[in-house]
Design a protein that fits this description.
By secondary structure, this protein is α+β, with helices and mostly antiparallel strands. It has one domain: 2,3-Dihydroxybiphenyl 1,2-Dioxygenase, domain 1 (Roll). Helix content is 32%, strand content 26%. It has three helices and four strands, in the order βαβββαα. It has a four-stranded mixed β-sheet with strand order 1-4-3-2. The longest helix is centred in the middle third of the chain and has 12 residues. It starts with a strand and ends in a 9-residue tail after the last helix.
Length: 103
């Protein structure tokens, strides 16, 4: 058994796509119109056929409540791994990413 898709709730799919591709460096994998929304996934450039992250709208009240609750508790919605954490931290800060918890 393999994990091929996971999702993260977002309030704006276009803004999320810009962040995940332009800042974090992921690649857009799928972008299919689904009414007012999109089936929008990104992947790691290191594993273009690996696990996809679905940028899922938080329009469902349960999704919005979940998103707000884990954020207020400081629980990450997703975790990403890098080879050089300090270098990646500096790169992201240079690009304007604000970290809420730091070492």
């Amino acid at each position: 058994m393999k994990i091929k898709l996971s999702s993260v709730f977002v309030d704006d799919q276009g803004k999320a796509l810009t962040f995940y591709t332009g800042i974090l460096g992921f690649l857009k994998k799928t972008d299919i119109s689904a009414g007012n929304y999109r089936w929008l996934t990104v992947v790691s450039p290191e594993e273009p056929d690996g696990t996809q992250l679905l940028l899922e709208p938080n329009e469902n009240p349960a999704a919005k409540s979940y998103q707000e609750a884990i954020f207020s508790q400081g629980i990450p919605a997703a975790m990403f791994f890098v080879d050089d954490l300090q270098n990646e931290y500096q790169r992201l800060r240079t690009l304007g990413v604000k970290f809420t918890i730091s070492r």
